[in-house]
Amino acid sequence: MRPLLVWFVTALFLGAQPISVALDKPVMSLNPLLLAREVEVQVVDLVFDRLVALDDHGEFVPQLLEGWEISKDGRDILLKLRPGLTWQDGSAIEAEDVVATWRMLSLPEVRKINDLVGVRTLDSLTTEGPHRVRIRLKAARATLLSDLYNFQPVPRRHYAQGADLLKHPLNYAPIGSGPYRVLPGARATDIQLQLWSGYHGSHPGRWGAFRFRVQPQDKTEYGRQLKAREYHFGELDWFRHYLLRRGAFGDGNLLAQSTPLASFNTFWFNCNPERSLLGDVRIRQALAEALPWEFLRAQRKLRAERLATSLWPPQSWAFDHAVEPLPRLERAAMLLEEAGWRVGPDGVRRNAKGRELRLVMFSAWGYSGRDHADSFCAALRRVGVQVDLRRTAVDVPFIMATQGEGDIWDYAWNTGLDPDNESPLFSSDGIASGSNLTAYHNREVDRLFEQGRHELDPARRRSLYLKINEQIQNDHPMLQLTYGVSYLVLDRRLRGVGYNPLGQTYGYVPGRRGWWLEGQ
């Protein structure tokens, strides 16, 4: 009956209008090994199954697996794959694919793009027949199910090829395991998916097709396309979102929604002393005192965002509830004086060697006349720090960070289900892989992350991550601004939209697999 049902659903929706989703930036790859950014995950979540998924209650449920067994000491785990599953080329999904994918995650060229430290550092994976994988650990892991959630196996016969992974043809023509397949002709800015009749997994799709397109940089043109129903779902800048809520944008066909995200808006600091003056922690601490909190607080009248005070957001059990003192600009001046930076006759600070305190900052174009980047730079000018603010397209600050160009990068970051997911951002291991873009390192932070990964007692484990938070907030490899909010716009006909515990519309079931257009 199952194949007949899939065929019927496919036939019913094959001619239906695709659900059109707007993306804020181009997709670099649809290879699950290379998912460096949230935008790629949005598409891949429909094309590849995970070993385990989240349900709409936030509980882990089997997906590619039919189940798992964990020994009493937590060091021996048996994963059982569902029999009868196939890749989209018709070949069987086997235990060898899981083990091969795990090995590929340790390749330097993979780690540089996407370092899944939790999965990668599992001590041993071996096959026991075509559908069983044995994991053996030197020590039990508190992160085990979260690690398996982040694990999307790929077919070993196709993906273990090539050195320049981002130029591999499979990046836009993946051979997936999920309910949707990518149609030929996909590219970074336009990707079409169609329901795959060969899917026999546990979480099928409901609608016949999806289309993901990068929204226009011109906000007026994007607004016109939304009104014309060229998109059924997308993000909106906060200002137009506010206008939509007030009835001053759209023609009644659009709905405004917003949801808190487990993320933070951030200024990332280049901590590499060979590339930036911000390699000096004293300067970073001074810059943190220039946080434009008054501007951000005033924005609360229009935006739902709140000031960030903890490395992990309120959705995380590692969230630090302690109230932090507000930054003081006069303290920034004092810290710079103590670090040997004196104000010159032109108002710009210089050190004893005469070097000026001038920094380069990359930030995407704002949506109004003045934003948090402008306010930050203005505050720094008042204490003698000159910032060359370079406005760019939305994806450029992250690209500049990967290249180590500039001193400050302005982009948001989505956190994972477990705080250990963020360890590559702040650890020495992340510097080696290239995923620690700021080049920040602290041996105590390294030790605490390693200890936290294996601590099974919830209270003791939380205390470890609170210590990590305290240390990083003191060293300031970044300056958190606000906790993220997703400002969304939906076509009134779109149904089934819900959010996972991180505030995302994907990464759980049914998620986007359960979306449909009413009246089609």
CATH class of the largest domain: Alpha Beta
Q: How much of the sequence is in beta strands?
A: 15-25%
**Rg over C-alpha atoms, rounded to the nearest angstrom:** 24 Å
Helix amount:
25-40%
| Arrangement of strands in the largest sheet | 11-18-12-17-15-16
Summarize, please.
The chain has 18 helices and 20 strands.
What can you see in these coordinates?
The chain is of the alpha+beta class and 520 residues long. The radius of gyration is 24 Å and the shape is globular. The strands form six sheets. The protein has a six-stranded mixed beta sheet with strand order 11-18-12-17-15-16. Strands 1-10-9-8 form a four-stranded mixed beta sheet, with helices on one face. It has 18 helices and 20 strands. It has helices spanning 2-13, 38-47, 95-104, 108-111, 117-120, 144-149, 156-159, 219-227, 238-245, 281-288, 293-299, 329-338, 372-382, 396-403, 423-426, 428-433, 443-454, 458-475, and strands at residues 19-23, 52-54, 60-62, 65-70, 76-81, 124-127, 132-136, 180-182, 190-195, 209-214, 233-235, 254-269, 342-343, 349-350, 358-364, 386-392, 408-414, 478-491, 494-495, 516-517. A hairpin with a 5-residue loop joins strand 2 and strand 3 (60-62). It folds into two domains: 2-213 and 493-517, Periplasmic binding protein-like II (D-Maltodextrin-Binding Protein, domain 2, 3-Layer(aba) Sandwich), CATH 3.40.190.10; 261-484, Dipeptide-binding Protein, domain 3 (Roll), CATH 3.10.105.
Topology, please?
Elements lengths: L1 H12 L5 E5 L14 H10 L4 E3 L5 E3 L2 E6 L5 E6 L13 H10 L3 H4 L5 H4 L3 E4 L4 E5 L7 H6 L6 H4 L20 E3 L7 E6 L13 E6 L4 H9 L5 E3 L2 H8 L8 E16 L11 H8 L4 H7 L29 H10 L3 E2 L5 E2 L7 E7 L7 H11 L3 E7 L3 H8 L4 E7 L8 H4 L1 H6 L9 H12 L3 H18 L2 E14 L2 E2 L20 E2 L3
Parallel strand pairs: 1-10, 15-16, 15-17
Antiparallel strand pairs: 2-3, 4-5, 5-7, 6-7, 8-9, 9-10, 11-18, 12-17, 12-18, 13-14, 19-20
Helix pairs in contact: 10-12, 17-18
